[in-house]
Design goal:
With about 375 residues, this protein is an alpha+beta fold. The protein is about 20% helix and about 35% strand.
């Protein structure tokens, strides 16, 4: 069997990793494009051994970049979540972590002009998945995105150069409203009734109280994933909210599109151990949370989810706001989120009336891992 090649690069952004393609290098036929994505990551095997994925949702990702259709942007960026053991190519949501890598790719591939003496450059990105503008401050060195630096982010062992990512007017990307179901919504499953908050900020998320589910919210991911009642109950809540918010017509439809909305459990600030055994003290965080991604508890917490949760924690009256440490009266704040691998800080600014989100963002690190040709067996064309 012969193979053909497609130019690509592999980047890490935050705690995610993905294949990056120039749009002009991909064929016009969408079916062939999807086969390239599925084969490159290897959606066919749960281990993803026959591609560059690693059997986790945070490495089963693809980004496609092109010159922008918007005068105010340097590039357009489209994100795809790829299945794990399933032939899924889903572009309904986005990836907050890989946004930093999009900035690096734009610089490395010449989409923006960078002086050889510059140390920082702003890259404006239009994210087609959510129809939102991103402003990414990219550290540069000798005209290319800088990888090395002193900033250490949770989920990584080595420090890197700091990328500042801000998402402007992030609410309502999928539903048209930051709060499509008001501040608190009541949902009833076969087992219980829950008060939840549904926020559509960057990506749509359902937030539910850990206590209402009979857990502390600080248990190890492996322990929670083994709890089939918990996992089934969370998915039941998620699909019911997808229908209530108008994202799916039926619960069956919502079950076959697991990428959005996603669901997270939240709890008050408390002491907990990270997955590596490090003690996080209650006073170090403003809220504690875990999220599910593609049917499993996320090893850390998706960047888009951190942005959404940070916004929810600051918006008065939401469920996360109930659990979050008392916020200062200022419109702009940094929310400290305790997640399975440490503490992540999220910048949030509310509108003047404090009823919506003006911008949200985080600091990440990113780097190019490799660049070359991706080999695709001919039979997948």
């Amino acid at each position: 069997m012969t193979q053909y090649t497609i130019p690509c690069a592999l980047y890490r952004g935050g705690t995610s990793r993905g294949l990056f393609f120039h749009k002009h290098d991909l064929p016009e036929d969408i079916g062939t494009v999807h086969k390239i994505f599925l084969t490159g990551i290897d959606a066919y095997n749960p281990s993803q051994i026959d591609g560059v994925g690693s059997g986790t949702s945070h490495s089963s990702k693809v980004c496609v970049i092109s010159g922008s259709s918007k005068e105010s942007a340097d590039v357009d960026f489209t994100f795809y979540q790829i299945g794990i053991g399933e032939e899924i190519v889903d572009q309904k949501g986005t990836c907050g972590n890989l946004m930093a890598a999009v900035g690096a790719f734009a610089v490395d591939e010449g989409y923006v002009d960078v002086s050889l003496t510059a140390s920082q450059v702003k890259v404006s990105v239009f994210n087609t998945n959510i129809n939102k503008m991103l402003h990414i401050s990219v550290p540069v060195e000798n005209g290319k995105a800088k990888a090395g630096g002193e900033y250490l982010m949770p989920g990584l062992v080595k420090s890197g150069a700091k990328f500042a990512v801000n998402i402007l007017n992030p609410g309502g990307s999928k539903t048209g409203s930051t709060l499509p179901l008001e501040l608190i919504y009541t949902v009833t499953t076969q087992n219980s009734t829950y008060e939840v908050s549904f926020l559509d900020v960057v990506n749509p998320f359902v937030f539910v109280s850990a206590k209402d589910l009979g857990i502390k919210g600080t248990e190890l991911n492996s322990e929670l994933t083994m709890n089939r009642f918990l996992m089934d109950e969370l998915d039941d809540i998620r699909v019911k909210l997808a229908v209530a918010a108008g994202m799916s017509k039926t619960e069956d439809e919502a079950r076959v599109t697991p990428s959005i909305p996603k669901i997270a459990i939240v709890s008050e600030p408390q002491d907990y151990l990270t997955s590596a055994g490090k003690l996080i003290k209650a006073e170090e965080v403003d809220i504690v949370a875990k999220m599910i991604s593609m049917g499993n508890f996320h090893r850390t917490f998706a960047g888009s989810g951190l942005n959404c949760l940070g916004s929810a924690a600051l918006l008065p009256g939401t469920l996360p706001n109930r659990f979050a440490r008392s916020m200062k009266p200022e419109r702009e704040q940094t929310i400290r989120i305790g997640q399975p691998e440490g503490v992540t800080e999220v910048r949030v600014a509310l509108t003047e009336d404090k009823q919506d989100v003006s911008y949200v963002g985080m600091d990440r690190t990113a780097r190019r891992i490799l660049k070359g040709d991706l080999y695709i067996p001919e039979q997948t064309q």
